Amino acid sequence: DIALQNVSKSDAGKGAKFVVKYSPYQLYPEASQEQIDKEEFYKTTNYAQTPDRFKMYQTYMTALGVGVGINFSFGGWIANTLHAHRLIQYYQEEKGAETADKIVDSLYRQYFEQEKSPSADETLLNAATDAGIPEKEAKAFIE
Questions:
Q1: What are phi and psi of 58, to 5 degrees?
Q2: 93, 117, 134, 136 from 139: Cα distances, Å
Q3: CA dist., res. 34 & res. 15, Å (int)
Q4: What does the DSSP assignment read for the chain?
């Protein structure tokens, strides 16, 4: 969203209308639906199992995030994101791109800033209601 907002505000983007269409892509499709500690996952998977490299990553990402209004938090949980992708795809088709954007924004905020699991029903329900979907309707889809 930040890059899209910047282009829209630029001379090159003036008068242009952008519509984002989300397609599912899982970084770790083999991930379990069960929650895994995010910090431990990062340390053992992405950063050669060294605390110093993980600390460098945290410092770097924190600095990038602050510049664009994202307050990264590195705790929380990792899990398979299949159900989040289903939610995005379903409501993108049913309610349009604007609703899908709001769902994605909420999922990212919950995951990257609020340490929520991307596969938890509560996270998915919050994302749907943040996008204006009635709770009863969203619950029926999620369950």
A1: -60, -45
A2: 18, 17, 9, 5
A3: 45
A4: -HHHHHHHHSTTTTT-----------S-TT--SS-EEHHHHHHHHTSTT-HHHHHHHHHHHHHHHHHTT------SEE---HHHHHHHHHHHHHH-HHHHHHHHHHHHIIIIIT---TT-HHHHHHHHHHTT--HHHHHHHH-
Per-residue pLDDT of the chain (143 residues; tens, 9 = 90+): 677 777 878 888 788 888 889 998 887 888 888 888 888 887 777 665 678 888 888 899 999 999 889 999 989 998 999 999 999 999 999 999 999 999 999 999 999 999 999 989 999 999 999 999 999 999 999 99
Structural contact between residues 122 and 76, judged by C-beta atoms closer than 8 angstroms: no
Burial of residue 14, with CB atoms counted within 10 A of its CB: 0-12 exposed, 13-18 middle, 19 or more buried:
exposed
Assigned token pair, 118:
């991307």
Cα 7 to its chain centre, rounded Å, is 21
Amino acid at site 138: A
